[in-house]
């Protein structure tokens, strides 16, 4: 336990000193502020280039548009940045050989993976919370406090999806020491999910629904039970990927 | 035009955050002139021109690991 | 007590057999040089001993405990210094030692105390810089500090000096030599002068097995070439010496180059050689030498005199008789280098 905490501390120190925390916090804060502003200012921006009567045809933006922007930015760009920032989480150590010392000093490989996942999950949680808080503040000021009941659940799903992506990344990272290969594997799996999304009924089961069905959930177009199977599958896959990462990493040469 | 002017208080934090991201990356590029690939000019252009991804790519892939 | 015991280890990478029934023992409190050519399997052996690689067959014991691949508990007895130790570049020395200490489970107070003591010892006390900016020598010394943190019974160093400049090398060797009292050091190298400088025991790894092992003194004694080097002031002196009858005796051969002669005694002093010495004494007598030769004609003692002494006396005798004063006269010492080339050939 002490080894795990020591290594977790090291992971957080690493993320701080190699600017990962900085990048994540600033970028996610920007997403949080940017999304409501884009929603709010879109009519004005369009109005400055087209005629007044065409501009008046554009509906007045609402809080729903603000959150649509938010989920678009965070679920796409945000997750891409999350994956890129942490793509070297294991590869950097394996190519440099820094883990040899740690493992020969008695830290089990499972705990190495666990500590790394914990650290990434913590940074993801804080970043997403920051983005959500900024978006919430901006949306209330710019659009008034509309009651959107499923806001919390929707962001929770995105959070779970982020954890799934991190465990996928970790599993890929235990397979390859090449940064680009890891990005490729992670990307390929997500693209398969996207392609599955072409078949509309698949959304009930597709883990990607946790990052794409947030708005329908907020607007009430679907209910939580519609994507219940997808949530269960995502959680199960996450657990499976973490186990897989540990098992693969155990057999790896350091 | 009841335009963009009234949103300036909302825009300022956003612009500051974006600037901080860029400036921190540029300072790092200038102060640590060893990169895994590329050179100073290329990295400054990348960071200044490509919104979020520029600084991310620099810090994740371009920065020398030992610095 | 045997700290490290390697018992018939086999290891192959694909079709390439690196270790073949390799067996080696390292006793307590010594500095053990583990010598072999590049690619001989030194690193492989060490990684197996650390549980970082799996042996195909055989057993490795550290302090009597069997090493298992993966999460080896024997590593609590071991400090490891990789050939090019890599640390987290963003950490400061003490931060790194604290991480190591916490992983090993040292009490907090002990980490600080031992950490600063070790940094003092390796000359990194007061260095506030991050490790990323360290020179190779500093990293190697940092590596020694982290290897000693848990007071290991065995320190395994993989080519600790190979990447260093002469000053860095001297610093690291001095530190390793100073560890003799507190722990056992095994270090691999292909630099024989390093071994000669600090090791008391050595093992030579060749073709996957230990070709030669023992204390340096033992090995040198076993492989002593019985012979002498004589350097004369002028070539004519040397020519006269070369023509001396003593050197024509059976079991003695010599080669000359410039003013230097190497005399090799190939025959051990059996009864025959002793009678040869007696014969020689007769020879000198006939040549009209007034003094009696120093070699006793028939030694009554049951133990025969060693060949060196016998041959040396013979040579000295010839020099005296011919009135030649050599500018150099020395007994041949086997160097580790000559032993190594002999074994590896």
Describe, in plain words, how this protein is organized in 3D.
The complex is a heterotrimer of chains A (254), B (67) and C (345). Helix content of chain A is 77%, strand content 0%. Chain A contains 12 helices and no strands. Chain A has helices spanning 2-17, 20-47, 52-56, 63-85, 91-96, 98-104, 109-143, 151-175, 179-196, 209-212, 214-219, 228-250. The longest helix of chain A has 35 residues, at 109-143. Chain A is elongated and about 70 Å long. Chain A starts with a helix and ends with a helix. Chain B has one domain (7-62). In chain B, α1 runs antiparallel to α2, α1 (8-31) runs parallel beside α3 and α2 (40-49) packs antiparallel against α3 (53-62). The longest helix of chain B has 24 residues, at 8-31. Chain C has 345 residues and is of the alpha/beta class. Chain C has 11 helices and 14 strands. Chain C starts with a strand and ends with a helix. Chains in contact: A-B, A-C, B-C.
What labels would you give this structure?
heterotrimer; A: 254 residues; mainly alpha; 12 helices; B: 67 residues; 66% helix; elongated
Strand content of chain B: under 5%
Largest interface, and how many residues on either side?
A-C, 27 and 29 residues
State mean pLDDT of chain A (0 to 100 scale): 92
| Count of structural domains of chain A | 1
Which radius of gyration of chain B do the C-alpha atoms yield? Answer: 15 Å
Distance between the termini of chain B: 50 Å
Short characterization:
The complex is a heterotrimer of chains A (254), B (67) and C (345). Chain A has 254 residues and is mostly helical. Helix content of chain A is 77%, strand content 0%.
What secondary-structure arrangement, pairings included, does this model have?
The complex is a heterotrimer of chains A (254), B (67) and C (345).
Chain A: H1 2-17, H2 20-47, H3 52-56, H4 63-85, H5 91-96, H6 98-104, H7 109-143, H8 151-175, H9 179-196, H10 209-212, H11 214-219, H12 228-250
Helix pairs in contact in A: 1-7, 2-4, 2-7, 4-7, 4-8, 7-8, 7-12, 8-9, 8-12
Chain B: H1 8-31, H2 40-49, H3 53-62
Helix pairs in contact in B: 1-2, 1-3, 2-3
Chain C: E1 2-13, E2 16-27, E3 31-36, H1 42-49, E4 57-62, E5 65-66, E6 78-81, H2 93-104, H3 108-121, H4 136-148, E7 154-158, H5 166-177, E8 184-189, H6 192-198, E9 201-206, E10 209-215, H7 216-222, E11 227-231, H8 235-242, E12 252-257, E13 260-265, H9 271-286, H10 307-321, E14 328-331, H11 336-344
Parallel strand pairs in C: 3-8, 3-9, 6-7, 7-8
Antiparallel strand pairs in C: 1-2, 1-4, 4-5, 9-10, 11-13, 11-14, 12-13
């Amino acid at each position: 336990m002490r080894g795990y905490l020591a290594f977790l501390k090291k992971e957080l120190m690493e993320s701080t000193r190699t600017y990962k925390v900085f990048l994540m916090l600033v970028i996610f804060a920007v997403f949080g502020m940017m999304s409501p502003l884009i929603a709010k200012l879109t009519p004005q921006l369009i109005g400055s280039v087209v005629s007044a009567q065409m501009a008046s045809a554009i509906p007045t933006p609402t809080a729903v548009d603000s959150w649509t922007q938010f989920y678009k930015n965070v679920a796409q760009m945000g997750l891409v940045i999350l994956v890129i920032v942490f793509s070297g989480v294991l590869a950097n150590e394996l190519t440099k050989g820094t883990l040899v010392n740690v493992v020969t000093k008695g830290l089990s490989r499972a705990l190495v993976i666990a500590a790394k996942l914990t650290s990434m999950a913590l940074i993801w949680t804080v970043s997403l919370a920051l983005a959500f808080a900024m978006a919430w503040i901006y949306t209330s000021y710019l659009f008034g406090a509309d009651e959107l009941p499923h806001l919390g659940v929707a962001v929770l799903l995105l959070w779970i999806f982020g954890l799934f992506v991190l465990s996928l990344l970790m599993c890929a990272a235990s397979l390859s020491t090449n940064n680009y290969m890891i990005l490729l594997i992670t990307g390929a799996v997500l693209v398969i999910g996207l392609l599955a999304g072409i078949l509309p009924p698949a959304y009930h089961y597709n883990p990607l629904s946790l990052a794409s069905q947030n708005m329908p959930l907020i607007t009430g177009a679907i209910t939580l039970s519609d994507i219940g199977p997808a949530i269960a599958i995502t959680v199960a896959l996450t657990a499976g990927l973490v186990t897989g990462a540990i098992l693969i990493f155990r057999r790896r040469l350091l | 035009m009841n335009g963009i002017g009234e949103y300036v208080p909302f825009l300022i934090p956003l612009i500051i955050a974006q600037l901080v991201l860029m400036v921190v990356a540029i300072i790092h590029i200038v102060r640590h002139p060893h990169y895994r690939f590329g050179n100073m000019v290329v990295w400054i252009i990348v960071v200044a021109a490509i919104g979020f991804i520029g600084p991310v790519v620099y810090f994740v892939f371009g920065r020398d690991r030992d610095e | 007590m045997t700290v490290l015991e390697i018992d018939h280890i086999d290891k192959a990478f694909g079709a390439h057999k690196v270790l073949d029934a390799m067996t080696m023992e390292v006793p307590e409190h010594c500095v053990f040089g583990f010598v072999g050519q590049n690619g001989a399997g030194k690193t492989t052996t060490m990684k197996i001993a650390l549980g970082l690689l799996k042996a195909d067959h055989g057993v490795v014991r550290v302090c009597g405990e069997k090493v298992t691949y993966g999460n080896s508990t024997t590593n609590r007895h071991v400090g490891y210094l990789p050939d090019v130790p890599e640390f987290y570049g963003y950490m400061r020395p003490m931060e790194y030692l604290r991480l190591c200490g916490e992983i090993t489970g040292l009490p907090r107070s002990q980490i600080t105390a031992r950490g600063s003591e070790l940094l003092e010892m390796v000359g990194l006390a007061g260095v506030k810089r991050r490790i990323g900016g360290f020179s190779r020598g500093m990293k190697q010394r940092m590596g020694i500090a982290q290897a000693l943190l848990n007071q290991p019974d065995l320190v395994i160093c993989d080519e600790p000096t190979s990447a260093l400049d002469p000053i860095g090398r001297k610093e690291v060797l001095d530190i390793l030599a100073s560890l003799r009292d507190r722990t056992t050091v095994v270090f691999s190298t292909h630099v024989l002068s390093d071994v000669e400088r600090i090791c008391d025991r050595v093992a030579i790894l060749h073709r996957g097995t230990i070709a030669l092992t023992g204390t340096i003194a033992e090995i040198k004694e076993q492989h002593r070439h019985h012979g002498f080097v004589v350097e004369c002031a002028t070539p004519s002196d040397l020519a006269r010496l070369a023509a001396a009858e003593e050197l024509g005796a059976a079991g003695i051969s010599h080669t000359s180059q410039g003013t230097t002669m190497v005399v090799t005694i190939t025959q051990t002093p059996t009864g025959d050689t002793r009678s040869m010495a007696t014969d020689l004494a007769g020879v000198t007598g006939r040549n009209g030498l007034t003094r009696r030769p120093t070699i006793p004609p028939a030694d009554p003692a049951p133990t025969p005199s060693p060949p060196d002494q016998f041959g040396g006396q013979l040579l000295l005798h010839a020099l005296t008789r011919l009135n030649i004063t050599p500018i150099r006269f020395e007994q041949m010492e086997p160097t580790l280098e000559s032993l190594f080339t002999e074994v590896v050939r």
